[in-house]
Amino acid sequence: MSRTQILAVSGILTGDRSRTRDLISYAVALAGVSGPAKLCFIPTAEGDNPAVVRWFEDAFGNDPAVDPTVLTLFTRPNVADVRSFLLEQDVVWVGGGSVVNLMAVWRAHGLPEILHECWQNGVVMAGQSAGSLCWHIGGPTDSFSGSLDAFSNGLGWLPWSNGVHDDLVDQPRRTTYRKLVASGALPPGYATEDGVGLHYVDGAFHEAVSVLPDARAWYVEASGEVEIVPRYLEKL
């Protein structure tokens, strides 16, 4: 069986959002392939928003290091054989948006089983925000309403919860995540500030990386938290 890898990232909400591209490029580097890596973007969490698809195509369309493709599911899959298409990829990057809707649509189309097969066969699974939560048991989300609620219906390939956009300043997700873990509504897990990615290898936490200086990750449990200092990635 191939080594399994997941890169779970908090997208950048403010500041230099172009550095999200560097996190995607880092996910590509993790695949370790010679020649252009086959990189598939899955924007389900934003309803396959054409503007998001254009951003991806503009960012990677002329990049010699990748062979970029997009899998859309609205109103039906844009490829004839989703399983064969995804098994051909080296990296899958899942965009942000609604994790609740993401999981509902994926399950309707049988994506969890297909993606799990890809993961077990060495395809790097990665994504930001909703595309980070999805690999875990769950985490705080505003996908149900305007407030933050516990979501616990993720894929669960990683046996922890996940807090994204866990920044110290003006970010209610940080406080809410710790309350949900303390109450038992969510299991212990890992939180990331914007620009930070969690790299898991063979289902275990390996390291945190960041494209923003001084950004942090945290391991959070009911009794408290432990700060994780990410390895800083220079501009790729």
Structure description:
This protein is an alpha/beta fold. It has one domain: Rossmann fold (3-Layer(aba) Sandwich), CATH 3.40.50.880. Helix content is 28%, strand content 27%. The protein is built from 7 helices and 14 strands. The chain has helices at 20-31, 50-60, 82-87, 99-108, 111-120, 130-133, 172-183, and strands at 5-9, 37-42, 66-70, 91-94, 124-128, 139-141, 149-151, 161-163, 189-192, 196-201, 204-210, 217-221, 224-228, 231-232. Strand 6 (139-141) and strand 7 (149-151) form a beta hairpin. The longest helix is centred in the first third of the chain and has 12 residues, at 20-31. The model has no long low-confidence stretch (mean pLDDT 95).
What's the topology here?
Elements: E1 5-9, H1 20-31, E2 37-42, H2 50-60, E3 66-70, H3 82-87, E4 91-94, H4 99-108, H5 111-120, E5 124-128, H6 130-133, E6 139-141, E7 149-151, E8 161-163, H7 172-183, E9 189-192, E10 196-201, E11 204-210, E12 217-221, E13 224-228, E14 231-232
Parallel strand pairs: 1-5, 2-3, 2-4, 4-5, 8-9, 11-14
Antiparallel strand pairs: 1-10, 6-7, 9-12, 10-11, 12-13
Descriptors for this entry?
236 residues; alpha/beta; Rossmann fold; four-stranded mixed beta sheet; 27% strand; globular
Low-confidence stretches: none
**Structural class of the secondary structure composition?**
alpha/beta
- The overall pLDDT, averaged over residues, is 95
What is the CATH superfamily? Class I glutamine amidotransferase (GATase) domain
In the CATH hierarchy, what is the class?
Answer: Alpha Beta
Strand arrangement in the largest pleated sheet: 3-2-4-5-1-10-11-14
Largest sheet: 8 strands, mixed
Number of domains: 1
Oligomer: single chain
CATH topology: Rossmann fold
Q: State the distance separating the first and last CA atoms.
A: 30 Å
Number of helices, counting only DSSP H or I runs of 4 residues or more: 7
